[in-house]
Design brief:
alpha+beta, Alpha-Beta Plaits, four-stranded antiparallel sheet
């Protein structure tokens, strides 16, 4: 299962690292790829993960989730 997460507030490679780290800490996340230019992250999941958990992790890292697809 894959989810695409649109994120506002990322401006550099350091931001990408923060988002990747926050998402990788969620139980069930197998892999994360962040696209800084287009401001989204693609997350591969081992099992269903509630969108609110994803949103909370990104909010806690200091960024804003605009939309989650998948």
């Amino acid at each position: 299962m894959t989810k695409k997460i649109f994120i506002e507030g990322m401006s550099c490679g350091h931001c990408v690292g923060h988002v990747e780290e926050a998402l990788k800490e969620i139980c069930g996340v197998k892999s994360v790829a962040v696209n800084l230019e287009d401001k989204f992250a693609t997350v591969e999941l081992a099992h269903e993960v509630d969108n609110e958990k994803i949103k909370a992790a990104i909010d806690e890292a200091g960024y804003e989730v605009v939309k989650i697809e998948g």
